[in-house]
Design brief:
Layout (H helix, E strand, L loop, with lengths): L7 H5 L4 E5 L2 H14 L20 E4 L2 E5 L4 H17 L6 E10 L7 E8 L6 E6 L2 E6 L4 H10 L7 E8 L19 H14 L1 E5 L2 H10 L3 E11 L10 H26 L2
Helix pairs in contact: 2-7, 3-6, 4-7
The structure holds 1,4-anhydro-D-erythro-pent-1-enitol and uracil.
């Protein structure tokens, strides 16, 4: 998309919420779910607005843009920066960004939802670190506290707990997340447990792979944002994600439920 061939304010000017998540399938489901709860027509097929890119998928459901970002910080930040530009060219004022995802939990029951308040990188600093022009930048990785509170209080009575806490963003699924079920196991079970317990003691509630950069870049852009992830495993009890496919699919809907409720509530206050 560009500003020459596309009327971006006409196409995207009514967007208020940008929701991102790992997979194309999940973000299509989220767009359809939002059409349902916002009472928008559901008879037309949801169109992938970026289908020619073959990398990400983007769907629009009224004021909600639902976009997949792939796995890990580099994949997510390419998309995030392009959407920040898109919102600027579409003249959207004060959009709210969400990431809905999955994670490994620390000391909370699998299936819980974590709304991130702050993030740690792999060396336990509260920054997203990126080399720019040969020098390391350390960008603060905090989320908007009030938004995190409001989003977590939108959850409730749905059969799972929502927590607010710290999130470790790892650059790897295996060693980077202190697993011992990958191909490289060069530390002991005790090393692993002492690291995971240290994280839990610091207030880290979950481990995923994008939070620091998502917090840092939205904050730098002056955009309110929230990272809402379901936990698939309690990492103090194991490394492997063992629940059935059906359970995992049901759990993955939980962040959608929480964010959906927040959005519905936000819009209902706005229309009063
Ligand atoms: C959670 O799950 C993915 C890795 O499986 C990654 O995108 C993340 O943050
Ligand atoms: N995603 C992660 O990054 N880690 C987990 O343990 C589960 C999902």
């Amino acid at each position: 998309m560009d500003t020459q061939n596309y009327d971006l304010p006409a196409l995207f000017g009514d967007v208020k919420f940008v929701c991102m998540g790992g997979t194309k399938y999940r973000m299509r489901e989220f767009a359809d779910y939002m059409r349902g709860i916002l009472d928008l027509p559901r008879d037309t097929k949801l169109v992938n607005l970026t289908k020619h890119s073959h990398r990400y998928a983007m769907y629009k459901a009224g004021p909600v843009l639902s976009i997949s970002h792939g796995i890990g910080i580099p994949s997510m930040t390419i998309l995030l920066q392009e959407v920040i530009k898109l919102m600027y060219y579409a003249r959207v004022r004060d959009p709210i960004f969400f990431r809905i995802g999955t994670s490994g939990g620390l000391q909370i029951p699998p299936g819980s939802v974590v709304v991130s308040s702050w993030c740690l990188n792999g060396t336990l600093e509260k920054t997203y670190d990126i080399p720019v022009l040969g020098k390391m930048r350390h960008i603060p990785a905090y989320f908007d506290k009030r938004l995190a509170q409001e989003v977590s209080s939108a959850a409730g009575l749905d059969g799972f707990q929502a927590y607010i806490g710290g999130t470790l963003a790892a650059d790897d699924f295996y060693r980077g997340q202190a697993r011992l079920d990958g191909p490289f196991c060069d530390y002991t079970e005790e090393d692993k447990m002492s690291f995971l317990k240290k994280l839990a003691g610091l207030g880290v509630k979950n481990i995923e792979m994008e939070a620091t950069a998502f917090a840092a870049y939205t904050r730098e852009a002056g955009v309110r944002a929230s990272d809402v992830c379901v936990t698939l495993v309690n990492r103090l009890e194991g490394d492997q994600v063992t629940p059935s496919k059906a359970t995992l699919l049901e759990w993955q809907q939980r962040p959608m439920l929480v964010v959906g409720k927040y959005i519905k509530k936000y819009l209902s206050y706005q229309n009063k």
